[in-house]
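Subject: RAP domain-containing protein structure
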Amino acid sequence: MRCLRHSGRAAAAPAPNACPIRRRIRARAAECVSFDVGSPSELRRLRTLTQSLQLDGLPAPAGGLPERSAAARAAAAAAAAAALASAPAADGGDAAVAGSDAEEESHLISRELKDCSCCQDVLDVLSDELSHMSPHNTVTALGRLSALAKRAPASDRAAALAAPPFGGLLRLLARQLPEMSAFQLVNALYSAAALGAPLSRVPGLLPAADAAVARLAPSFNDRDVCSALYAYALLRHGKPGSGAAAALLARAQSLLDARALEGRGVSMLLWAVGSLGLRHSGLTGAAERALLADGGALLRGMASQGVANCAWGLAKATGGQVDAALLDHALSVMASLGDDVKPQEVLNTLWACARCRHDPQAAWGPLLRYCERHAAALTPADVASLFHALGTFGRTPEPGAAPALLARARELLPRMAPLEAASLYRGLGLAGLADSDAWRDLTGDALPAAWAAGQLSDSTKRMAFQGFLAGRLSGAAEALPADMLLDLKAAWDQGLAARPRAAPPAAARRGGGAGGAAAARRAAPGCEVHSLLEGLGVRHDVDVATRDGLSVVDVQLRAGGGRWVALQVAGEHEFASNSGQKLGPAALQQSLLEKAGYEVRWLSARDVAGKPPHRRALYVAELLRALGVGVPDGALRAAEQQAEGGAAAAAPGGGARRRGGRGQAAGGGGGGAVVSSGEAELLFSDPKVSGANGRRRGGGGGGGKGGSRRLFPNV
């Protein structure tokens, strides 16, 4: 029933019968009185409206209401409905009078919409007035429905979205978008998104919205930009059109550069950009500058949810390139607030750290204890994010926290999406938690069921296979079904084939064209090390697959004593960006190579690139000598001369400088232009960078060089 409260409002202005909506109300009331039609609720509504709008007294037939047959009443009702649906022509031909009437009609419709107290009330108004609604009325109707639906049961909300009047409202919105102002456009999109309206089902609506946004975005204020992007993210129909996205992101960047956004707006903006998967280096750079300006004043003024949204959104939008100071601030906020934060805020922050390879370090303890205390409140996505972060950093939770977290993970398994289950599986394996009921349940039931249903993408298969390998290396006996394991191994092989190569492909060597550029990108970072080794005349092999096919050696070397050395050229994804600690996947790679019979050492590509070009050959030569790999004397002397000549050219005055020979360099007594073997040994002995110094476990070298044993004979 329509809940109308017009009687408590101020009376309308004079000229009570001039407006078309007033005439329709009066005509309908007269029909109801004369022919005894209309429901009791409609009669009450008409009585209230005629009193509130100061309409003339209603005509009543002399002698009371006539008795009429059911057929006559039905015919009269149909005639009355038809008369009500067609608006009479405006009095007079004056355009100004007609415009005034239209404005008053729009005002009355909006007032009636605002007086609605439930979704059905709004739908009733739409049924009566849809053909007479202005853009302002459309925005008001969407806003009122959105506000009322928040408090309504889910069934009422679903019924409202499926009702024919609501479908008519969306079609009207599609027609009116080109004539809406910026304020109306943004409010319409935001309200429709909050409702969960199926905009994609209305032909032409989303393209019309994109066109309107692209046209009006340069005039958007801070609220408009944030609300529009937030609405697109809530709609979940995909990214905005390229023109709309470019206009919105450019406008957002200009507002950020002008420091025109407050903390809440920045948080909403970054969450939306991250959710939509939009990439815009100008916007994210401007956002970081704004957040960290004045000692991070904007960040310090945010609530915990805003801080978490900023960290998560930036990590998504930049592909994991977020300023360390911002992540450290987010971690300190989450760790210091104790139970005053929400689980999703903590887990989104941990996910952002994992995406950016930023080790939480001291924050791990309080955050894991928080998760233990609030384990019952964790959702499937929260649990997947938590164990994803633990696996990424190869960290095992504290003994006191592990049981509650593992029990919650097992409890949530039936509700997990396949990607969440695979992420949990990988995290359990890399974090050393394969000896748990959750890992066994995933191995024996959850993941095989998802695979059999065809729900695992290739990247998800690689994630699951990584978790399986880590579990088997830690001694877990459970195995995935053989046919599933072969399929996961095939996806793993595809990933190995696409990894960066130590030797530049033929396309990169030939150069030229998009293919050569793409091949050169895939070849980094190991190709320069390969070139330096070739220049030094050191025998080596590159991109060598182990005999079991589970890993690839970047650079294979033969060292003294018949040792086979796997020199892995570490890019940016093998070690934590802030602590230098080896990440979980890199530790797994090292274990696989050691099982294959190699002595594993890591060489940072960034360290090599950080050396001046004239010093790189000698730097690598000294590293090889520290490993026990022979370097031809002539090549070593040439590298020393190159380093000395480059240093002399770079020194003030440009004069040549004498230096000792090879023995002096090895002893560390040479000038600062030469890397000493002592420095090289420090690099390889550093537990954050190097592998174990123990003897190799296999019988011979990998990659066909000896008798390395297969880790999984059935793979």
